Amino acid sequence: MSETNARTQILAAQRNDDSFPTLWDELEWRGLIHVSTDATALSELIEGEPFAYYCGFDPTAPSLHLGHLVQLLLMRRLQLKGHLPLGLVGGSTGLIGDPRPTAERTLNSRETVAQWVESLREQISRYLSFDGDNAARFVNNLDWTAPLSAIDFLREVGKHFRVGTMIKKDIVAKRLNSDEGISYTEFSYQILQGLDFLELYKQYDCKLQSGGSDQWGNLTSGTELIRKAVGGTAHAIGTPLITNADGTKFGKSEGNAIWLNPEMCSPYTFYQFWLNQADADVIDRLRVFTFLSRAEIAEFERQVAEEPFKRAAQKHLALEVTTLVHGAEATQAAIDASEALFGRGDLAALDAGTLGAAIEALPQAAGAVGSSVAQLMVDAELVKSLGEARRAIAQGGVYINNVAVAAEDQALTADDLLHGAFAVLRRGKKTLAGVTA
Question: PANTHER family attached here (predicted)?
Answer without folding.
Answer: TYROSINE--TRNA LIGASE, MITOCHONDRIAL, TYROSYL-TRNA SYNTHETASE
